[in-house]
Design brief:
2 domains, Transcription Regulator spoIIAA, seven-stranded parallel sheet, two-stranded parallel ribbon, Lipoyl synthase
Length: 349
């Protein structure tokens, strides 16, 4: 079975905003000649309802009217129905074409278009129209840009702050190829949460995330925390790709050593037959075990479940973290005691 049908992008019409997206024949041209990996039937605990609510349609209209891209759509997120019903959308900036070709990702691969200089204003306007109290901004990798797109992240953050000063901002960034000046540029505008996903265990990087390096990603997050300890840092892992529980535990230890506050763990779901095969479906009980293990290691927030994704319930989690930190500061605790108090206050959060 070829993925040509599932991999084709239909011709797109100009959005009402006047933004015209380039039509691509195939989302993943680099994967077309790979052998097929049959897609396994999902267990009952992964089934989700098709999005049909009126609120979902309203969110979709705002996204389309502004000519924006969301990772919810591009990555085929299983939670899109729930999140968009709540008017929560994760905007994906700098286009819909990524310069890398990760084996797990459903985002299109190829040569991107030039940056859209009007995009920051449209993202800010959509954020305001959706009434978002907490917005998540992610992007494709843009290795074609000297700063990896760091400056565009800055413009988006500043525009949202101008239009919606009360909205908290979470970013999920590429690795910027580890360029220190790019990282510093983004940290300087103080996003409320700086997320960068480790994605998988180091052993699987050559086959699953070949365009990245595990320790480059880890050092990025460590550097963010060193540059501004007040920023919350966050990372995410997929499981079900063939990793062992011991390897996941080691990633947790590495992440804590880098000062990471949030950890998300979710099941890898295979987008097409040309993507990496699922090794197994991790059970809900195993996800609960990972959550207990991570909390014991000192993470302030852990989200671990089959359907957990990086921005799933991000606003609620941020509110819990901020309240815990404020309570600890009010109590006049020192840095170490404050972290312990935050973890205690969050409990099973």
């Amino acid at each position: 079975m070829s993925d040509e049908k599932t991999d084709e992008r239909p011709a797109s019409e100009a959005a009402s905003s006047g933004v015209v997206k380039r039509v691509r024949a195939f989302r993943h041209p680099e994967k077309r000649n790979r052998p097929d990996n049959p897609i396994q039937r999902k267990p009952d605990w992964i089934r989700v309802k098709a999005p049909v609510s009126r609120e979902y349609q309203a969110t979709r209209k705002i996204v389309e009217d502004h000519g924006l891209v969301t990772v919810c759509q591009e990555a085929g997120c299983p939670n899109i129905g729930e999140c968009w019903t709540k008017r929560h959308a994760t905007f994906m900036i700098m286009g819909e074409v990524c310069t890398r070709a990760c084996a797990f990702c459903n985002v299109s691969t190829g040569r991107p278009d030039a940056l859209d200089r009007e995009e920051p204003a449209r993202v800010a306007d959509a954020t305001a129209k959706l009434g978002l109290e907490h917005v998540v901004i992610t992007s494709v990798d843009r290795d074609d840009l000297a700063d990896g797109g760091a400056g565009h992240f800055v413009e988006v953050i500043e525009e949202i702050r101008r239009r919606s000063p009360g909205t908290t901002i979470e970013i999920l960034t590429p690795d910027f190829k580890g360029k220190q000046e790019a990282i510093e540029k983004v940290v300087a505008v103080k996003p409320d949460v700086f997320n960068h996903n480790l994605e998988t265990v180091p052993r699987l990087y050559p086959s699953i995330r070949p365009g990245a390096r595990y320790f480059t990603s880890l050092e990025l997050l460590h550097r963010v925390k060193r540059l501004d300890p007040t920023l919350f840092t966050k990372t995410g892992l997929m499981v079900g790709l063939g990793e062992s529980a011991e390897e996941v535990g080691q990633v947790m230890d590495d992440a804590r050593a880098a000062g990471i506050d949030f950890l998300t763990i979710g099941q890898y779901l295979q987008p097409t037959v040309k993507h990496a095969a699922i090794d197994r479906f991790v059970t809900p009980e195993e996800f609960d075990t990972y959550a207990r293990q991570a909390r014991a290691k000192g993470f302030l927030m852990v989200s671990s479940s089959p359907l957990t994704r990086s921005s799933y319930h991000a606003g609620e989690d941020f509110q819990k973290l901020r309240a815990a930190r404020e309570a600890a500061v009010a109590a006049g605790l020192d840095h170490g005691a404050r972290h312990r108090a935050e973890a205690d206050a969050l409990g099973a959060g």
